[in-house]
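Batch job 17 of 40 flagged for manual review because the log was empty.
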Amino acid sequence: MNILIDAVPSTLLIGGTAYRIRTDFRIWIMFEQMIQDDEIMNQSIAFNVAKKLIFETLPPTCYDIETAQQILWFYQKGETEKDNLKNSIPYKDRIYDYDTDGDYIYAAFLQQYTIDLQTVQQLHWWQFRALFAGLTDNCKISQIMGYRSVEITSDMSKDQQQFYRKMKNLYALPLPKNEQEKIRILEEQLLQRKPLEKI
């Protein structure tokens, strides 16, 4: 798929039938947040919620595997890699979060493209992702993602290392709740001078 010459899709082909889907970026941000939510333990319930969120008319349940593959294909902008999405981007390697960075992303689109993400009627997920990827370093969110992704190496001066450590701490994404709980238990064990238990 070449976004310059091909029309962005508005349907998914499942069981030989084209099913219309909701393509707006807001829907797919909600989908991304859902698949990254460690608290959603029941994958079957999550999948059914996702289908209702995405499809105007639900495909038959006998095509659930194909439906899941098509949803992931669309989410990944037509890429064919079939890795488990929750594990494809380890939490420590993530450089943005729609909840944490919502204000910065909103401001960047307004600044660079004069697109008000609050009032824009429809912006296709693939178009949104292309615009997001194209944000310049003049936007605060691009700078923040740069800080989060930079690798601090011994080639850097001590001042540079100190600066990037400070920026990484300043703009660190909040840990998932299960990681926060592990840290809380560890701190408790250290404060009570208990032998460290496996968490």
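Reviewer: the log was empty due to a logging misconfiguration, but the result itself is present. The CA atoms of residues 111 and 139 lie 8 Å apart. Unflagging and moving on to job 18.
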